[in-house]
Design goal:
By secondary structure, the chain is an alpha+beta fold. It has helices at residues 5-32, 36-47, 59-79, 83-86, 90-114, 120-129, 135-142, 149-161, 163-175, 177-214, 222-240, 245-257, 264-289, 297-322, 330-338, 344-356, 361-379, 383-389, 475-488; strands spanning 401-408, 413-420, 441-447, 450-452, 465-471.
Length: 496
């Protein structure tokens, strides 16, 4: 195969231009309250055969790249998820990812068969493909809708965990294994893959955390790379063991993201950038797969009817079923029923039967594509309105300070760099009033570009940068204390 430098240069030119336009589009989507995936999908369509004429129809490559992008997106979701924030809604989130998914698949499959006239296999396949919600789609909108922890925790847990069972289900249906094993056998396979993947991911996460706490790397830039690689290791180990790699990568990332690791903020920024790049490439590629000439009135009509059933019937039913696991106020249940945004995951799942050459796979892909675009346009911009009408939104909590950590190689300690935000109640507090754990000290204050070694009576001010040296054993307690004072002032109790 010859290597054409000119083709490479053109590929880099187009790729760089599209990526820059996609990055700028984030601002537009944020202002409009729309998930950025819609703009990326439309960019892909514009680049495709109906626009600039770029031809792309390799379903196998699309499936492989789509799975790779989902791994990166799930890793970012786990690493950036605060366990304390999601814990209040974790039980409901897990229920929605499992029982809720089963309920949604059942309702949509029955409706698709009896109302839309689809064969059972195609109806169940459509239901399974469209069941999972998408974290990127949900939280690109919810960034402007402050919600209580019970709701953010539920939505984060659901979107992070429901990819794995639906990917397994769609794969089994496409291969014909679901019919071979029957309902009980298929359910057993899904449970085995989920539990096995979660356990292996948990093991990789714990082992990786222990390793990273004991290794002082020569460059701070290696820590984000090493931690991200550990999440990929979780996916690979689980996949080789014939369990769910997607469950493993999310659980491994969740463990690593909530462990006191060095350069945690830098790691989250690093993987956030990777996730944005993965989303851009994924959505543009999926847009290239669509041919507008195939969008007949029949395809659009089926997509609209199936979307209405999914949004107005299947999603509320799945939420009500899961309310038996974790009861919630009716306002919360109403918002969760409307917040089931679909995104990249259903379209990626639609490439599985497409790559396998299943009957009606191309038409199924087009139906799913239209469903995602239309109903994201309908539900996305209305989520802030729904939150206000249901009175579940709350005032955004100001961020008290930014924190970055770095290890000290020769001693078992870390240096925390803390920047005091204008809203922080650390302002006006004397250092002695912080009551930090034994061994933790504020070694340096940087104020107005000047450094000073503080005494116990030094008063902190807005905009100060603090260097806090803390033994690794009390690092978490030190961080908790700083956050408590930042939020509640000098009278915050020690154990808060």
């Amino acid at each position: 195969m010859s290597f054409d430098v000119q083709q490479l240069n053109m590929f880099v030119l187009v790729g760089a231009t599209v990526t820059l336009l996609a990055i700028l589009a984030v601002r537009i989507s944020f202002s409009a309250g729309l998930p950025s995936l819609l703009l990326y999908l439309l960019m892909g369509v514009a680049l495709g055969e109906a626009g600039l004429g770029i031809s792309f129809s390799d379903a196998d490559l699309a499936q492989a790249l789509g799975f790779g992008a989902l791994v990166i997106i799930l890793a970012e979701g786990g690493l950036s998820t605060d366990w304390d924030r999601v814990r209040p809604g974790m039980r409901m989130g897990v229920a929605l990812a499992t029982l809720g998914t089963a309920a949604s698949v059942t309702v949509v499959a029955v409706a698709a068969h009896y109302i839309l006239g689809m064969p059972w296999e195609l109806a169940v396949l459509l239901a399974a493909i469209t069941a999972p919600t998408d974290a990127a789609a949900v939280f690109s909108v919810l960034r402007v809708v402050p919600l209580p922890q019970r709701l953010t925790g539920t939505l984060e847990a659901e979107s992070g965990l429901n990819d794995a069972p639906t990917i397994v289900l769609v794969t089994l249906i496409t291969s014909g294994a679901a019919i071979e094993h029957g309902f009980g056998g298929t359910a057993a396979i899904i449970v085995f893959q989920l539990l096995g993947g979660a356990l292996l991911g948990y093991g990789v996460g714990l082992g990786g955390a222990m390793l990273m706490r004991r290794v002082a790397l020569p460059s701070s830039g290696l820590y984000p790379l090493a931690i991200f690689t550990l999440t990929l290791l979780g996916y690979a180990v689980a996949s080789v063991a014939w369990t769910s790699g997607f469950a493993a990568v999310y659980v491994a990332a969740l463990v690593l993201g909530n462990t006191a690791l060095p350069h945690r903020a830098a790691t989250r920024s690093f993987v956030e950038g990777l996730a944005w790049l993965a989303q851009i490439g994924l959505f543009v590629m999926l847009g290239l797969l669509l041919s507008p000439s195939r969008l007949t009135w029949e395809v659009v009509g089926i997509a609209l009817l199936a979307g209405l059933i999914l949004t107005l019937v299947a999603r509320p039913v799945s939420v009500l079923v899961c309310a038996a696991v974790q009861p919630m106020p009716w306002r919360d249940l109403g918002f969760l029923s409307w917040a089931g945004l679909r995104g990249a995951v259903p379209i990626v799942l639609a490439t599985i039967p497409l790559a396998a050459g299943a009957d009606d796979a191309q038409r199924l892909f087009d139906i799913v594509f239209v469903m995602v675009v239309v109903f994201t346009l309908v539900t996305g911009p209305t989520l802030p309105v729904a939150a206000r009408l249901l009175k579940v939104s709350r005032r955004a909590e100001p961020r008290g300070f930014d924190l970055e950590a770095a290890p000290l190689g020769r001693v078992d300690a870390e240096v925390l760099q803390v920047t005091i935000a204008p809203s922080s109640k650390l302002h006006g507090v004397e250092i002695r009033e912080l009551r930090l754990p034994v061994g933790a000290v504020i070694a340096l204050i940087v104020r107005d570009g000047k450094t000073r070694v503080p005494d116990p009576h030094a008063v902190l001010k807005r905009g100060d940068d603090l260097l806090v040296v803390t033994p690794r054993a009390v690092r978490e307690a030190t961080e908790r204390r700083l956050r408590a004072v930042s939020q509640r002032g000098r009278l915050a109790r020690w154990l808060e």
